[in-house]
Amino acid sequence: MEPLGATTVFLVICVSCLLFLSAWRRLSGSGKLPPGPVAFPIVGNTLQLNKRNLPQSIHELSVKYGPIFTIYLGSLRVVVLYGQEAVKEALIDQGDEFSGRGKLALADKLAKGTGIIFSNGERWKQLRRFALTTLRNFGMGKKSVEERIQEEARFLVERLRNTHVSRGPSQDWGSFASRLLNRGQWDLRSAKPTYAAEKVHEEIDHVIGRSRSPCMADRSQMPYTDAVIHEIQRFINLVPLNVPHAVTRDTHFRQYVIPKGTTIFPTLQSVLRDSREFPKPEQFNPGHFLDANGAFRKSDFFIPFSAGKRICVGEALARMELFLLLTTILQNFTLKSPIDPKDIDIAPLPSAAINAPKPYQLCVLPR
Predict the structure, then answer these.
(1) Which of 92, 155, 159, 200 has its CA 20 to 30 A from that of 301?
(2) Fold for domain 162-241+279-366?
(3) What is the gyration radius of the CA atoms in the chain, in angstroms?
(4) Residues 97, 98, 100, 103: is their CA dihedral positive or negative?
C-alpha cells in the first residue's frame, strides 16, 4: 500500500503543478497579455474580487496594474481598460477590433446571442442597420418625434397633477418619471443649496415661461439646465463597467496582443469619474459642464452611452427625452422629499453591473 500511496501523492502534485502552470500561461499569454493578479485554477480571480461591488475591485486593481490589465472570472479571460485614453483608443481608434459583444452568462442563456445588444458579427450589423432605419422612420432626430415626446410629457404632467394621497401633495410612485426624478433627487444631495431645483426653475421661467411646452430649441439657451442633465448622467454612473465588449480578431493593443474572442471591460466609470476632467468626481456639481462664463462646456469624457461601434443606437432619442421630460416636469412642479434631503441614502443598490438608485418617496408639488 505504501508504494501506491506515494504514487498517488506524486500524481496529485503533478496535476496541481500542471493546473497552476496552465493558469499562469493563460495569465501571461507568453508575455503578450496585459499583466494582472495571479489567477487560480477553475475559479480564476473570483475569490480576490468583491462580487457585490465589482467596480470598486476593478478600480483597486487599476491602481496596482495600470490602465490595461487582465483578470479571470472563473475560466473567462477579461482584459480591463481603465481611463479615458485606453477606452478611447480601443473603442474609437481601433473600433472594428473591439466591436464584438463580450460574454454575459445570464444574457447568453436568455437571449442566446440574439438582439442588437447581445448579437455579434453579421447578424449584429444587420440588426443595427435595421434599428437605425426604423428609428429614423419613426422620426428620431426630427420634429415629429419631438412633438410625440412633448405630448407624452403633457400626459405625464396631468397624471402627476391628478395623483393624490391623504397627505395632500401630488405623488407618483412607480412610473418612468418617478424613477427619473428619483435619480435626480438622489444626485442632488451633493449640490449647493441654490440648486432641493431653484436655478433650473429660474432658467425655465426666463427662457420658456409657463404658457408653452419646452422644445429642443430651448436647450442652447439653457446652459445650466443642460449642465444639470449631463451631471446627473455622469454622477449616477449607471453602467460603471460598460456592457462587455470582445475583440473580433487577435488584436495588437499598445505593447500587448489580445487573443480573438477575449472579453473586454472598457470601464465607463474610469472616464466619467476622471478627476483630471471632473474635479472632486464623487460630488454632484453641474459646474463640471460650465465654463467660467456660465456657458455650457462639452467634454470628451462624457460617454454615458458608451462610444464607438457599439454606442447606444437610441442615444439621440434618449437625450431628447431627458431634456423634454425633465424641463416639462420642473416647469410645472417643485420636487420635495418627505424627509430631510441629507437623510436620503444615496448609495446605489448592491450590484455587480448597474448602479441602480434605491427607491424612496417623492412629493411633486404644483408651482
Answers:
(1) 200
(2) Cytochrome p450 (1.10.630)
(3) 24
(4) positive
